[in-house]
Amino acid sequence: MATTHTLETPEADIVYDVHGPAPAESPRPSLLMIGQPMTAEGFGTLASYFPERTVVTYDPRGLGRSVRKDGRDDHVPAVQAEDIHAVIQALGAGPVDVFGSSGGAIAGLALVTAHPGDVTTLVAHEPPLVKTLPDAAAAERASKAMRDAYQARGFSAGMAAFMQLGAWKGEFTEDYFALPPADPAQFGLPTEDDGRRDDPLLSERSLAVTDYELDVAALTEAPTRVVIAVGEESREVFTGRTALATAALLGQEATVFPSHHGGFLGGEFGYAGQPEAFAAKLREVLGG
Predict the structure, then answer these.
(1) Per DSSP, which regions of 71-201 are E strands?
(2) Distance (Å, whole) CA 140 – CA 104
(3) What is the pTM of this model?
(4) Which of 18, 197, 265, 276, CA to CA, is 20 to 30 A from 44?
């Protein structure tokens, strides 16, 4: 069972869910699971493997149930970090553990940078930090091509380009840019244009996420234990390579988790990983 709460701020109403026991009754620190642009429902399966402790999931501002009031539509990790900080304060449970997925991993890194006392352990799973890559300029070019496909032909074209980008192994060479435009039909996507251009993954709204620059000094000096995680199936593709590069910048080796970028997923989006094995590894990394 989960209870849903709304944290009202001047700029947004942040909706979060508390699973399991109340924070004061949890035998271990509360565990926050954060995504971007994925919202709380994507963590349903993973949360179910931690019934003994408080698990908190949330919708980032402007996504899902968290309604913005500031008139903006961009997604900025430093802003999301302040929202997460406010949720932690509302819980009143002291330092928490955090599992961040994809853009949520970047928000977690921004949280530790700004509020290191909030987090005991951060597990940042495959943060897509473009600027960490040796081929950053080429990766940015590939990302722009994906956004251009979305702007020109809509969701299916943009998502097909995203999937082609995400599946490419190794650096983005001229061989990648010589590929024909990704065909939505090959990925089981409809071919018509849905007419919208506001998707948080495929539009420029989330550029601040992938363009985020690590404050290496702040992260290495923080009392927080920061663990960069990579899926065993992802190490050669974009998000796996950014995880490995981020870990290297922080003076560590990435911790290998089962499965792929969405390895913790059950049946939430039809892209299931190995959630039971993933949860077991997360429990091991968190120490119990």
Answers:
(1) 96-101, 119-125
(2) 20
(3) 0.97
(4) 197
